[in-house]
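Morning F.,

Quick status update on the modeling queue. The single chain you submitted on Monday has been processed. Sequence for confirmation:
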Amino acid sequence: MPVKGVSRVGGLGTAAVLSGAVATAAVLTSCGTSNSSAPEQPSRAAPSESLSRAAPSRSSTPSKSPASSRRPTPSASVSRSTAPGTVQLPPLHADFDYQIGGAYPPPTGVRIVSRDRTAAPAPGLYNICYVNAFQAQPDERASWPADLLLRDADGEVVVDEDWGEALLDIGTAAKRARVAARVNRWIDGCATKGFDAVEPDNYDSYTRSDNLLTANDATAFITLLSRHAHARRLAIAQKNTVELAGLRKRTGLDFAIAEECAEYDECGEYAQAFADRVIVIEYSDSGLRKARSGFAGRLSIVRRDVDVSTPGSSDYVRKVR
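Structure tokens below.
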């Protein structure tokens, strides 16, 4: 989700969560398949099993949830493997477009596109399905059971103030299972439509929880999602949250989508943890220049406008150089 006048999580404040861990690179296959050890049901070496609570740092970035009336069209040129336990990974260093604010015909040369779960995939491309997995968007908040909205000691719902989104309560195994059951139905919808991967947003919401949630809660929850995604033959992205990149093997995450990693000097950490299978989204010309200067030959990099708007909008920006 794009930054809107505020910073995003992932800098020195939250990096302290894993300060004792040593980075080790994960070796992924090329654009072929990734083995999943998932059951039917979401670099640094040997991280601590007990992660400390992280103080809020830079906040995450939410999406627009576009309505789409187009009929689902499965990807044509990216075939998903039929072998048990395998998923199709996004191509390395491929042109990418971020369309979570509304679907439109991808520009020439684009091979990877990310769209909201309500949209249809783009025919012939590698398609990533965006889901807001850790927070409730304002228009969906009322549909969540009241006890699954995170509440403070006074019983007030904890809200991501930048985007007006209620945090979901993933603080116990029972609640994680209930939230995952709903998010996994969205993931099922992504698979049915023909998407190739899923992008669960707000992995870093624990840093905005007033210490009511922990990094352990977040990793336990996303592991449930990754298992389900793999069971549906979908790859799954780590969205932002660089301080947890070293846990990608344990959590089952296949690639990274990193917003403003050049702006905050994080791209190298993602690249190491995910063996360069990283999609970078910058929201400024300076961020784009910085990303390209260090990683133009290695990572997928795009510059978008903060609202991730569609062509024809006065705010629309998309650049790759």
